[in-house]
Structures are given as C-alpha cells and as structure tokens.
From TrEMBL:
Stated name of the protein: Uncharacterized protein
Domain of life: Bacteria
Length: 90
C-alpha cells in the first residue's frame, strides 16, 4: 500500500521507442496482467512497467511515482532460486 504519493506519471509504449504520456487507464488493474520490470530511480521514486492487455489493443504501460512512505505486499511470489528453476507462482 502506498501512502502520501506526491506525483505519478503514466506513459504508454505501443511500438518500441514511441512513448506517449497518458492518463491512468480505466480499470487499469483488470487489464494489467504482468509486471515486466520495476526499479527504483531514487529513495522515494519507483517505476513499474508491464503489459497492458485490453483487446484488441496491447501496449506497454509505465507508471512512475514519488512517495513519502509505503508498505509493499503481494499474494504470490517465487524466490530467485525458484525462478532459476522455472518454478512459477501458483
């Protein structure tokens, strides 16, 4: 859970290198199927990117946001060792 979000920026990449600023897609979580990358650009800024699949359109969505504090949880995960053995979350 993120708290005290200071700013967020949404971008969409339909073809490689063609990035456009967008507003938050409607029903975003229903169509954001897989996180492809995530990284921190500073102590209080994160970028999460992944495939957005809302047929008939598919794109790569980036969300960058700055925050004051957060609590990060997830329902399913694998360890690095499991990932190397091709074990996927159930």
């Amino acid at each position: 859970m993120l708290r005290n979000i200071e700013s967020e920026k949404w971008t969409e990449e339909i073809t490689k290198g063609n990035i456009s600023d967008i507003s938050r897609p409607e029903n975003f979580l229903a169509y954001f199927k897989e996180i492809g990358e995530n990284y921190s650009t500073s102590d209080n800024q994160i970028r999460i990117s992944g495939v957005y699949m809302k047929p008939p359109e598919y794109s790569w969505i980036n969300l960058e946001f700055k925050f004051k504090n957060f609590e990060f949880t997830w329902d399913k995960h694998v360890t690095h060792e499991e990932w190397l053995q091709w074990i996927l979350p159930e």
